[in-house]
Amino acid sequence: MSNLTKTSPTPDDAAADADPNRFPPPPLFEQERMVEAILFASNAPMTMRQIAARMPAGCDPAEVIYGLKVRYEGRGVHLGKVGDAWAFRTAGDLGFLMEEDAIENRRLSRAATETLAVIAYHQPVTRAEIEEIRGVTVNRGTLDQLIEMGWVRIGRRRMSPGRPSTFVVTEEFLDHFGLESARDLPGLTELRAAGLLESRPPASALPADLFPERQPEDEPTGPADDLFDDE
């Protein structure tokens, strides 16, 4: 039976195992793939030191970064420097493709809805006529904001003392509600059939004390307070 002896590694062998350059680095193309993956996966720009710490020993991040920067010139994304760090960024001239329009649905306030309805059914109509029909004062911002929405525009001036401006609905208003013209607006019978109006006698035929007297509208506290209800 032979004796087995255990030999300890020599200092030269230990030094060879600890040498980071004992194995050759990956080819440059593989190093570029590694850096691409590292930068794409990172949620923040990375410095050269941070990139080197993730790569095999013997790699040259500086050479790889230079090669990638040249490779991505003129593409949809490019390799850009942010301070001392590097990151892939969208090409500046393609930024518009990443824009997203958000549509915020907001309900018109009662005052704005009534004002818009008066204009739609009685156009061309002056501000004084709107107030007379509604029985309340029209806030200064209500008409301005309906105009900003694109649903109301200023019409011709009346040939009467003071030459007051009139208001009419726009084609955008008609298009929004699927109307060819203001003549296609539903009548009272259609509104009642759709449940949008109550079937009741006019207020003039009811006792005067049944409805409290309507007060003038409060002045708006901000540019949108009069036009929209709070959600």
TrEMBL record:
Chain spans, region Disordered: 1-27, 196-231
GO biological process: cell division; chromosome separation
Acidic residues bias spans: 218-231
Keyword set, alphabetical order: Cell cycle, Cell division, Chromosome partition, Cytoplasm
Pfam families, per the entry: SMC_ScpB
SUPFAM superfamilies to which the protein is assigned, alphabetical: Winged helix' DNA-binding domain
Entries under Gene3D superfamilies matching the protein: Winged helix-like DNA-binding domain superfamily/Winged helix DNA-binding domain
InterPro entries named among the record's database cross-references: ScpB_csome_segregation, WH-like_DNA-bd_sf, WH_DNA-bd_sf
Name assigned to this protein: Segregation and condensation protein B
Protein species of origin: Paracoccus aminophilus JCM 7686
